[in-house]
Amino acid sequence: MRRWLLVLLLVVTSAAWQGVHAGEAKPLAADEVIEKRLVAISSELRCLVCQNESLAGSHAELANDLRREIRTLIRDGKNDAEIMDFMVSRYGDFVRYRPPLKGTTLLLWFGPALLFVCGLGALLLYLRRRNLVIRDTPLTVEEQRRADDLLQQQEPRQGQS
Amino acid sequence: MNRFLWPLIGFAVLVALLAVGLNLNPRDVPSPLVGKPAPAFALPRLDAPDREFSPKEMLGKVWLLNVWASWCVSCRQEHPVLVELAKRQTVPLVGLNYKEVRGDGAIDSDRLAPGTEQRMVVERAAGWLARHGNPYTLSVLDMDGRVGIDYGVYGVPETYVIDKTGIIRMKHTGPISPDIFSGKILPLLAELQK
Prior knowledge:
heterodimer, A: mainly alpha, Helicase, Ruva Protein, domain 3, 6 helices, about 75% helix, about 0% strand, elongated, B: alpha/beta, five-stranded mixed beta sheet, globular
């Protein structure tokens, strides 16, 4: 009974949510081509107010304004590169989720690969050195004899148990 | 000894990187506008909404453009610094009143008639300046935030230092602290005014 109530509650609330969103989504449906491009472009852009959100997904007021601005630019017939330039010339490369490759971003682009190569190098160096250490210390005759003794002592004991 | 030295060095490097990285201000996004001409605009003035102000009028002067709004809490924090600046009369300070009504989430500006919005903007902005003191040589009204976008505004308050030829020489995001004012802005102004 309780489970059914829960299901009912979920259905009702989700229907209510859809109602809310349908109301908000009306202007989006006005021109599907423009909206698709808007989403594609704004997914590549950072919302500067809540910096870990894309411009497409942010509810910040500035994101709203900027989406409106991009919509206007699309209507004016600007291409994607021109719109990207519009944003970058005002907010800097930081606004792009994929920063361009240039002098100041070299470390950003190749830093992880560089770290990986360094790590790999260090690991190989370590392994090789360890191999040398292991190879260079064979058992002396005395050690070999003690080892044999120990092994022989152990065998009958294993048999007992 | 050697066995512990390398992990220790690695740890020290990590600590150093984190110490620098975590102390950086993520809001401090370098503005691409520094070194570029201040974007042109023509906006109504707060003191006389039927007259417009344009940055062209300031050519030949070093001046500050400060983005503010009455709903902006941090603006209240930096306000005494601006009042102090105005008292010294070093440079003209132009206020860009940013989305006075639309930025205030409590009002649905789409339902306001254009004339109504401007009246509300003037009323609120002028009221705020009357209460807290007016450090601005003049303020202009950017009601829809369109000029703000041209200036790359993403958080109020923001301040721009503009030189005699109309080039932006510095942008500060966030409230101006007395330290930043006397340590960074005043020296830059003195240098630009030479």
